[in-house]
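Deliverable D5.2: sample structural annotation.
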Amino acid sequence: MITTRKPTATKVAGSASRKSRTGKARSTDKITAERGVKEGRPRPADRSKGRRGAKAGKAALPEANVPPAGTRSARRNKGEELIALLKRPMGATLPELIDASGWQAHSVRGFLSGTVKKRMGLPIESVPDAQGVRRYRIKA
């Protein structure tokens, strides 16, 4: 049995066509005219083309508990707490630094070598004590 394809609408140069629900080809120019869509018309101001951030109708929420610009809060960050421990005369052991920061051991060692030693340029001394526990301190 030989099957043949149904003929489709032929395109005229400069005109596009689209099938309607009935299966007949219609010009897209007629479709846009029926819907009242004009090409190149500006979009209304309240509609944006995509979702790029907060909606226009909603105002930003005020930040709570934020100190004014130029002032510093009384609470220190984890890095400052670790540096305070390292500045003690006896320094600090790795377990003490882990307890103070809540970080894992490799993160504390990375902070010591990357931030304190390289970025801040502070000399770090690492010496094992009498029990064999390694103590880290900032050389004065």
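Annotation notes: The longest strand covers residues 124-128. The CA atoms of residues 1 and 68 lie 84 Å apart.
The annotation will be released with the project's public dataset once the embargo ends.
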